[in-house]
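Standup, Tuesday
Yesterday: got the pipeline producing structure tokens again.
Today: sanity-check two examples.
Blockers: none.

Example 1:
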Amino acid sequence: MSDAAPAPAAPRRAWRARERLAALSRAARRFVATHPVSVALVVVILSTAALTGTLWGEDASIWGAGPLATFAAGRWWTLVTALVIPDSTVDAVVSAALAVSVLAYAERLLGSRRTAVLLGVLGLAGLLTGIGFHAAAWAVTDLRPVVAAEVPVLDPTTPIAGVVMAATAFAPTLWRRRVRLVGFAALALFALYAGDADSWYRLSAAVIGLGVGEVLARGRERRAWHRSSTRETRTLLALVVAVVGSGPLVALISGGGRGPLSLVVDAYTQYDDELLARCARVSSSVCDEQLALLMTRGLGPALLAVTPLVLMLVAAWGLRLGRRSALFLAVFTLVASAVIPVISLLDGRLLIDPWVDGSGAEYVLWAVATVVIPLVLAAVLVAARGRFPVRATRRAARTVAVVIGVAFVACATTFFAVEALGRRSFERDPSVGDLVVLTLRRFLPPAYTNPAGAANFPHHGPALFAYQWVGVLFWAVVIAAILWLFRRVQRPDAGDARVYRELLRRGSDTLGFLGTWAGNRHWYSDDRDCAVAYRLVGDVALAVADPLAPEGRRPEALRAFSDFCVEHGWIPAFYSVHEDTTADLEALGWRHVPVGVETVMDLADLSFAGKAWQKVRQPLTRAEREGYTAVWTRWRELTVLQASQVVAIDEEWVADRALPEMGFTLGSLDELRDRDVRLLLAVGPDGRIEAVTSWMPSWTDGAVTGWTLDFMRRRTDGPNGMMEFLIAKAALQLQEEGASVLSLSGAPLAEAPDAADDGDPSALRALLRWLAEVLEPAYGFASLFRFKGKFRPRYRELTLAYRDPLHLPAIGAAVGRAYLPDASRREIVALARSAWGGRR
């Protein structure tokens, strides 16, 4: 029996393989039907590459375009062939990959017919513009970029760059910004550092395409981009740091670089063949230095030469994660990379083209690439330091400091000892002072630190090996320690958070889960049976939601928390509390003012039958009929593709806001990652996520009895009715699971239909109403409140409770700062001006 049991598995595997193949075939057919122009371009590129032999590495420059090839030689057909024939195997692969990715995206935005036309028009325009500027530069200057004028261009990515930039005018806000910033950063990187003609023609087509896209999109309603979220800002700054760090590498890989900023590569090269050839006829200190570089070349010195670039890439990785240590590393590396070459230039160790007189222009370009760009970027990072708050633990920081210090001492001591014992390998016997200076120099890039004049260095044996590798070993330890430090970040006390969650599970109201969010602190009674979550803003302690306390002990908890705040010199205030807590605070002599309304659905007898539910039932029925499904999941269960879609939807929402993303009682992507939070996704028939909601639990006696809606995002270009669909599906599913309450969360600064002014200070009530009017265009609180009214909820007033009216200005400022912690003074002033103008 054991031999026969596995037999059915083979047919099942074959059937699954056929199913996967069939699914892949269907997806390929859909892609071809949706993107015919992109697929056709791939076919053309690969066909022409095969016919001309460039796919196999043959030279096809006769088909290329350029000032000489097109105009002087009269080969006018090259204006067409240069746009469809790649110049190498790598170019063919890259062009085909771009065609089926970014060009396909552009085709989806522009339409196939318009894409086909723009490929020809923008490709030709970019080529002619690039050739014109190239010829002009060749005629009036002798800078290095014009060396490429003799090389005909074959580059199918030129029209692709133009079309993609034109299509960004039709893209959603988030992707319009992303594609433009990333695209032009990459194009400028190659143009300024590599400097080949292909790069400049490609950049010309992109600039023209950007203008053409704006003209084509004129009159079309588009959302304006106002700002980036913290995550997006980190990513973009990390990208810029990586680009600045990668520029010299691009110049090196491209054969030394011909771009105007490729002169910075002089600081990273080991020796100059042309200089060495001339040194056969000329004797100078520069020749001695070049000979030293030649004699000590190898993998070790090459790795040491690019250490600043590696540090920049490591810093970029940490900046993307929000690490404060990465900010310090990036600023230090940028400043050092700007200062050390200047010192080397001043003392004669680094020369800019010493064989040519009148190199003022090259000095300017060198200064821009080597000094100005790093210092400006360092200043930008310092100004944006608030975006990188994630600090390492003190223990980890001390450990890294000790490791780096020990590594430096060990490497320096070992190097000094090896060189002292290997004195015979030197051309001249070095003194102790010479060995000390030589030891310190081995930890910096050699092109910066080799001494001008007669350089003394080891020629063979262990001394030469140590000379080449000791610096590399040290920096390898430093980089490994920094990467380790990125993973050791300060986190809230796990025990503290665990106690609060245990009290939540004992019993909590619908908004109690807000107390688990990052940025909140927790106060506990002496017996750890009562808790208050609060946000400390300045000297104001804003308690979030109702306190957690056993029945009958809430007044005691409120009084004890208030005394705790007074002892610390803080002003206590309770924000977004329900009427039961408000009543207890009133009994203690506190006052209160409404700050929002919570909308709650009772699930016991819920059904969407009847005319009253028509506005909910119609989008629910339509979405189900069109093949949309509601998928329950949690963040850790999302695939990489799903998570990236959720992030993109959120970033697009943030980009559309004139003010920063709000926090405090309004969740963001960070809160979705909580293991207790459930996600409900609206997924289209094509598998694309159209909308996202998140749901926070509430407990009674250890059992989940309710869920609270927090995060709500949908695609701006998605179908209408997705939120109604998700909320209705959530209510029906949670009803089946036994939940009794579904809260649609609070609407900040909203008022219930039957709200009264009793007990509210008129000035504060007027201020809150004014603030609601001001924030409405940016955040839509009132429209969101009206939307929730479709679900026929019952309304629960949320109040702000305070002890002394004299504290209201400080409490109001604290609430504003808690909701908008990233708002700049300029944005606050603009907000006030817009509000004042609107009221007039």
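Example 2:
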Amino acid sequence: MSEQPREPGQDREPKRDSATGPESSPSSVPSDALPLTTGGEAKAADGEAVPPAGPSRAVEEQPASPGDLDELSSASPVGRLAATVERLSREVRAAQAEAEGRALIELAKGVLVERLKCGPAQAARQLTQLAEQAQVTPLEFAVDVINQAARDRMSEVTDAFLAATKAADEAESESAAVRLRAAESGVLAADDTQAVADALLEQALRPLGAVAVAVWAVGSDGSLTLAGSAGFSPAEAARWRYVPPDVVTVARRGLVERDGQWITKLGATGLPSIGLHHHPDGGRVALPAGTGGRIHGVLEIAWPAPLEPQPPQIVRQVEALAELCAHTLELYTPPHGAAHEPRVLPDAAELMDLADGLHDPALVLVPHLDDEGHLVDFRIQHVNSRFLDPAGRPRAVVSGALLLEAYPMAAGDSELFQRVERVYATGEPFRARRMNLTALVDQVPLSAVADISISRHGMSVLLIWRIEDETARLASLLQHAQRLGRIGGFEENVLTGEITWNGQLFDLYGRPETSTPVALEELPAHAHPDDGVSIRRFLRTLLHHRRPAAAAFRLQRPDGVTRHIRIVAEPVLDTDDRLLLIRGAYQDISSQHWTEVALAATRDQLAHTEQQATERNRLTLQLQHAIMPPTQAPLQVSGLQVAVRYRPAETEQLVGGDWYDAVVLPSRKVLLCVGDVAGHGIEAATSMVVLRNALRGLAVTGAGPGQLLSWLNIVAHHLTGAVTATAVCGLYDPVGRTLRWARAGHLPPVLVRDTEAAPLPLVKGLLLGAVPEAVYEETELQLEPQDTLLMYTDGLVERRDRPVEESLTHLLTTARSAPSSLDQQLDRLLTYSKSDTDDDTCLVGIRVG
């Protein structure tokens, strides 16, 4: 902060060294540099209190000389650490002072550039010459220049405001001029910020409808101190005397926003502020107060009603008032002295009596301030008789200590200290359930879970915590378990007849809790008549044989609802084996019972469905074997060997529609065909029968294979429920050794000649049943002696993990090594097939003699 302005003839203090500049508060010793972090005090090794290394103590009390530091350094490690901290603090203070001095000199140069209309270099020379003439240092002369410029600027702002308002409204301008001039004179004549607040409210703000004003001074750490207020009650002003840096209020928003805060309705923002409870629906304005480019505080104004948008002249008038406040705030220093030392205030004494009457552990906290009036910690002024420390320490250890000294972990994850600080600043109480409390005992963190209540009473804070009782927590857990499991407990005294039920058991019986519990001997009257035998057996085992027993029965409730209940109980005997008590539990198993009934019905239905599926599969397999046996009697054709193989699916559910045929037609030609109907089961098998028999009948006409497939497509599309199928049809002429063939979406036949095997060239042909009418291309193949032709379905080559082309390559490799007979070759192909789909497989082979 710059030095106070002086008149030219006023005596000055001794000159300061220009290299170091004005005195600046040294930095506080970091908390982690002390043996224990206690929020303001540290304890030496011998247990005596060591004064905190704060700004005022380091400068004003007893600064250590280099000799003292050397002696202390040689005495203990703590002394060496203190000497290092002192040296670093001096260096930091020197650097801060030098930086502030340079900033003030540069600011004064800027003022001279503006006033003298010259360049920066000429302004620097002029500043040096004027300082030498006045016999002061350049820094002191720069302070005087800046202060004089601030006073001139204040007058200019006032004149500009008056000129603007006069142009808008002559009458209003005159009134505003009077108010502003009166306020300016009051501010300049006032010697403290409280008088400034009174002058602003009476001279300038009440005519605008305002009812209260607060002048806040901003600290170096960003905290706000109520420097003056008017219109607020003394209790409210005392409660808002200090706002920590991390508490967001209306004044805080006005400090960080360049244009301030203009709030229509304070209660709608949710922001805490002074006087919120008195004027929750009123408007509020908070503007930064600064001079010379520095913000010194905030001007906050309160209206009793919602604040409508203000005209420009009113806005400029309020901004001018904020700049008037900055003149006084620039010279404001927080009050010192014993008035701010912690003491037992009247409200704290009353709060102690209140705490002693509570049944929960409670602490009475009073603020602990540093020499500049800033809140740094809270002192534990009183602990009540119910106090229970999380670490098990006695009351005498905690009472009188600082909060962060007794609980240094309070500033950690739980943020307990920040909660207490906020409640003290705003007055708004805080409640929390199951907050973690941690105490550091012998460097070991001990934790506990507690419900927290924090409230402010005058200048003191009441902190209440209720540490969670393990027994109560387990009891609550048991209650929830009984509720979720629908379990009701009971205890019956056999000697006195006294019966105890919990609330859940009354709910199971459908009876109010004010009714009389039902004795065990009366249980048959409340059960279904068909369950009487099991209940009597249960009672005989329990009461006569005196053994634990259990039973399940249907409970008939008064509301007509029947519940399925399971009861379990045990006898309690005395030392002479006499029956004293019966205790046990009821459990509602209605949902479990009906679930078991539904599962039983589902199992019966699944068994019936499984039996039906097995029967269908058996019939399908019988039908398929009856029409297509795995082997067929060889055909008697001159110069031609014909062999067929059929391998059904290993799983009955996968029995499909693969089919083959090899028959000699009346024209002495041989019909050769294989096909595959889509799907499995009885539908695929019956469709296969239709197509196979239809193709046999159509072949008698003497038509070619292309025409036969075209007719068969009509049959598949119209006569079999629109099934789809693939097929290969061939007509072999033994006279010319020629084969005319066509295909309908099927894999082409494989020709094995000498040591080569290759599929026949593809011919066009759509699968059967896809469209109503289709044309199929056919081609002719001239066979030679010892040629072998193979027709097959995809069950021979199809795999789940490989493409068909790769499986077909394996088939061709196997077919090249032809055994001596055709039957052996077909068996070899089936044996070494790599198909893994477990599908039907048909294979037809012919060999020319």
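Quick observation on example 2: The mean pLDDT is 77. The radius of gyration is 52 Å.
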